[in-house]
Amino acid sequence: MESRTYDIIIVGGGHAGCEAAAAAANLGSKTLLITMDMTKFAQMSCNPAMGGVAKGQIVREIDALGGYSGLVSDYSAVQFRMLNRSKGPAMWSPRTQNDRTLFTLKWREMLEHTDNLSFWQDSVTSLWMEGDRLKGVETSLGLRFRSKCVVLTSGTFMNGLIHVGPKMLGGGRMGEKASTGITEQLLGLGFESGRMKTGTPPRMDGRSLDYTKMEVQVGDKDPFKFSFLGPVRLRDQLNCHITYTDPQVHEVIAESIDQSPMYNGQIDSVGPRYCPSIEDKIHRFADKSRHQIFVEPEGWNTHEVYVNGFSTSLPFEVQEKAIRMISGFENAVMFRPGYAIEYDYFPPTQLKMSLETKLVDGLFFAGQINGTTGYEEAAAQGLMAGINAHRVVTDQEALVLTRKDAYIGVLIDDLITKGTDEPYRMFTSRAEYRITLRQDSAAERLTPIGHAIGLASDERLRALTKHTAQRDAVIKALNKYAITPEEANGYLEEQGSKPINQQVKIATVLTRPNVATEELIKLADDYVTHMDDKVISREAIESAEIILKYEGYLRRENEMAQKMLNMDRMKIPTDFDYRAHAAISFESRDKLSQVRPENLGQASRIPGVKPVDISVLMVAIERSVSHET
Ligand SMILES: Cc1cc2nc3c(=O)[nH]c(=O)nc-3n(C[C@H](O)[C@H](O)[C@H](O)COP(=O)(O)OP(=O)(O)OC[C@H]3O[C@@H](n4cnc5c(N)ncnc54)[C@H](O)[C@@H]3O)c2cc1C
């Protein structure tokens, strides 16, 4: 048994499990990752891409803290794009298209080179409990593994049920077994569970598509990366393509809608509203004559392509008939059909902010099991659960990121405080401080935290220090050096911006919309003479520009955040009896007793808790604390 004793066991090698395992082991805990299939680490179950709006910020945050998702994404990228460049910088979002196979292989390589981390390929069938105390896990081979903490990251596998038209198969993903037994045990321990669903589109043989009928979507000319560390920037990139459905396609789908498990009652669980199936889109947006389809390559060395926007659980024959009506898909040959999957999740209000369950000490949940959807959301939770399991093992206080620190803080606070009754994905609109939580500021916000807890390396901190020093030097220079009308006006006119009629500081012109620092500084002799641009990174110039342009907004967000932080700092005693405080409304007492918030800020964000009750609660907490001391 000694050889099967660990500090932390991670169940499941998906995005959440891989980040959790890496974090726990890198922090020094003796960690075991048990997963059903070791050739599928961090398998991209759906689209071959990382990042995108709000999700790209999360990948940068994971990277900044010392997680692996950003590095793996950079190593396996086939295309890089900064989305939403035409909008404000809060919306700029890095995204990579990835080689699906390389992504998994790189994860495996990085995990196998992580000290303190062992692996076991098997299926966990139950938690090993003695009374209400967690002892470890039991597997399908009848083995017991002992540990102080267990992080459960079972994704879409718990009682997974796959649907392709009328066909139903038990499975966690197409071709993979479902995980059974754990849900029933957790229910017996007092947990609540629910059912959610998601779906995926068919995959095609790229050789059978006519790309000349589609629009080409190329990667950025000067691509960035997710991480300051890792490989050099991409030189060659693969193209994506865009095509559209049309009324004929819609007609075929509409005719067969009663064969879709989502419409004929075969599936009645809730799916991701923001990632609807094609049958959903046609039904809900009946007035639209076309829907966009992104045709995405699956990797460098495969013909397989992913048909983004055509997620479906219709019978195979209907999928094939409908897809062949799409322009460019007339002779399309399918590699795999689309399908839908239903699975168990556990409402996340059953967790503490650390992602440890409130019911069983040492048991953590992370990823899709908590009702989220998306690789990035899962990876972020895995990272935090891995960190916090290590902190339980080493008797340290949990690391909790606030809503001002990170999208990861917003994600976890939303889940724990509000719960979710539909698959939760991140959007920039979920964050109050989105100008602060930019993709370019992730390292500055989080690497010092990651380094202080022992996860982010010295190399990462040095890279950050170099970046901020360069950025500050650029800000100083832009405030110091001037640009003349002769230098600036040609460019300003091109940008539709008013010419200047006398020499001004570069920073003054920069605050105008449509004016880019990178372009302007090339024109300003004063700047070119004094600054050696060869040593200054594009990232530093970009960050300098954002800070100068958005100074006022950033200051305002900071002031707002300070008020929230003061409320977050006011801890609520764990045994606080809400029901004993009659001055708090009955409805608020009820909600507060259910969620049991850890601090006043969290209490104020619980849906249905009235602001007036928060003031009463604040006084009650102050009294109860002073009473105790
Ligand atoms: C068909 C399908 C469609 C999807 N569509 C979308 C989409 O459109 N948009 C989107 O954002 N996301 C989508 N997703 C979700 C996305 O794949 C997940 O959000 C993400 O992969 C969750 O990561 P995870 O680590 O929580 O779980 P997963 O990636 O599911 O990984 C779980 C891992 O745990 C292992 N495991 C499970 N149970 C056990 C056990 N008992 N013992 C040992 N190992 C176990 C599994 O083998 C697997 O490796 C889809 C997923 C599927 C399956």
What would you say this structure looks like, in words?
- By secondary structure, the chain is an alpha+beta fold.
- It folds into 4 domains: 2-155 and 181-197 and 343-452, FAD/NAD(P)-binding domain; 203-338, Beta Barrel (Elongation Factor Tu (Ef-tu), domain 3); 458-553, tRNA uridine 5-carboxymethylaminomethyl modification enzyme MnmG/GidA (Arc Repressor Mutant, subunit A), CATH 1.10.10.1800; 570-628, GidA associated domain, C-terminal subdomain (DNA polymerase, domain 1), CATH 1.10.150.
- Helix content is 37%, strand content 17%.
- The chain is built from 21 helices and 22 strands.
- Strands 1, 2, 6, 7, 8, 9 and 20 form a 7-stranded mixed sheet that branches.
- The two termini are 46 Å apart.
- 49% of the residues are buried.
- The structure holds flavin-adenine dinucleotide.
